[in-house]
Amino acid sequence: MSHSEQQTGVTESTLGESVTTQTEQGLYIDPQALTAHLPALHYRDDALYMEQVSVAALAKHYGTPCYVYSKQAILDVYQAYTDSFASLTHQVCYAVKANSNLAVLGVLAQTGAGFDIVSRGELMRVLAAGGHASKVVFSGVGKTKSDIEYALTQGIGCFNVESISELTLINEVAQQLDKAAPISLRVNPDVDAKTHPYISTGLKDNKFGIAHEDAVAVYQQAAELSHIDIVGIDCHIGSQLTEVAPFVAALDKVIELIHKLNDKGITLQHVDLGGGLGVRYIDESPVTIDEFAAALLPKLSALGLTVFFEPGRSIVANAGVLLTKVDVLKPTEHKNFAIVDAAMNDLIRPALYQAEMAVIPETLPNKGLDTDAMQPWDIVGAICETGDFLAKDRLLSLATDDVLAITGAGAYGFTMSSNYNSRPRASEVMVSGDLHQLIRKRETIEALYADETLWQAD
Ligand SMILES: *Cc1c(COP(=O)(O)O)cnc(C)c1O
C-alpha cells in the first residue's frame, strides 16, 4: 500500500483520464468528470440537465423509471460517422435493435440514415418511422419465408445472408414473387473481437455468418441462382469493441475474399463492415470514430466499393439515460441495498453482461468524494432474483426519493426490457434543446394481461 492509500483508503485508478476512484468501501464515480465525456448531460447549479432540460423536472413530469434520449446526441454521432467517411461513397445503416423507438428511427431516417434490421418487426418499425426499405439491410440467422416475402415486397436494399439454406429460400421466394433478391453474404472472418463472449460474433464457433473458407464456394453457388442478385459482402464481428485492430483484421480477410471473387468473375457493389464500435460507459477508452476511419479508409478507398456500416450502440448509448427513484434504503450487516424503481426487467445489461454502468445523482452532493458522508450501495431492483442489480458497491450519498440517472442507457436498454414480475415497461422521452416529448407511454398493468384469457374449454 502506498503512503496516500494508508492515509485515506483511496487509490486513483490507473486508467488514463479516469473518472473513478476505487476506495476500500466501494467505487466512486465523479459525476461531473463523467458527464464531461457525455455531451448530452451536464450539471448546472448542481442539478443534472439533458440538453437544456432539468432531469428533476423530467422525472417529476413523466414519472420513473423513464428512459430519456437526447436528439442532438444521436444526430452528432451519426454526423461524426458521415463526416469521417465523407471521402467515400458510404451508407450508415443504424442497427435498429440497439434502440428501436419510432422517434429515434424517425430522427435518423430524416437525416438520411439507412437501417440494419434483424426481423420483420424491425422493418415495419423503420417504415412506420419514415425510413425507406431500399436503404435497409436485413441481417439475422433465422429469416423465415414470410420475413423474406415481406422484405422483398417492400423493396429491401439487401439481405445479409448467413447460410446456404437461407440463400436457397430467398431464391425460391424471389422466384415466386418474380423479383431479383439483392444479397450479400455475411462472412465470418474468424477474428477475436476481444469483447464479452455473449456479444462476440466473429469467431468460428459462433452461430453467425458463413465460414471464411467456404465463402467463395457459396458465392459461386449464389451466382448460379436465377433470382439472386449478388450486390455485396458483409461481416459483423461483435459489439462494444474498444480496439481498432479486430476491425482491420476483419477487413483484411474480407478484402482477400473480394479479390478472390473478382478472379472468379464475381464483382460486388458494396462492402458492409457491420457495427460494433464501443462506447465509453465509465472509464473505457474506445477507439474514436475518427481513429476508426483513419485505420480503415486507405484500405477501403483502394477497393472502390460503396461502404456500409451498421453501428447501433455507438449512435445511441450515450444519448440516453434511465431515470430511476430510490424507493427503499436497506442497510444490512454486510451490504447496503438501495432498492430503486427500475430493475433488471428495465435494464438487463448489468445482469446479463456484467456491464458496469454509471449511476449518478440528479442533485450533486455538497462535496465531491466524501467518504464520511457516503456509503457503498448496491443499486438493485425489486425483482425476486439475486441477479436483479443495476450496479454494485457504488459510493454514493443516498436518501429515499432521490432521483438517479443511469448513463449510457440509450442502447440495449429499453429494447431488451421485459415485463418480468408483471412490471409495465418504462416510458420513453426525447429531449431537444429545451423541448421534451413523451415518445412511448409507460405501459399500464392492465395491458400486460389484456390479451390473456381464463381457461374455459371444459
Ligand atoms: C447488433 C448488430 C449490429 C450493431 O452492433 P453495435 O455493437 O450495436 O454497433 C450491427 N450488425 C449486426 C448484424 C448486428 O447483429
Give a structural overview.
- The chain is α/β, with parallel strands linked by helices.
- The chain folds into 2 domains: 3-70 and 317-448, Lyase, Ornithine Decarboxylase, Chain A, domain 1; 71-312, Alanine racemase (TIM Barrel, Alpha-Beta Barrel), CATH 3.20.20.10.
- It has helices spanning 3-8, 31-35, 55-62, 71-84, 102-110, 120-128, 145-154, 164-177, 215-224, 245-263, 289-303, 313-316, 349-353, 445-449, and strands at 10-12, 20-23, 27-29, 41-44, 47-50, 53-54, 66-70, 90-95, 114-117, 136-138, 158-161, 181-188, 210-211, 228-234, 270-272, 306-309, 320-331, 336-340, 359-361, 375-380, 389-396, 403-407, 427-432, 435-440.
- Strands 7, 17, 18, 19, 20, 21, 22, 23 and 24 form a 9-stranded mixed beta sheet that branches. An 8-stranded parallel beta barrel has the order 8-9-10-11-12-14-15-16, surrounded by 4 helices.
- Helix 7 (145-154) packs across helix 8 and helix 10 (245-263) runs parallel beside helix 11.
- The structure holds pyridoxal-5'-phosphate.
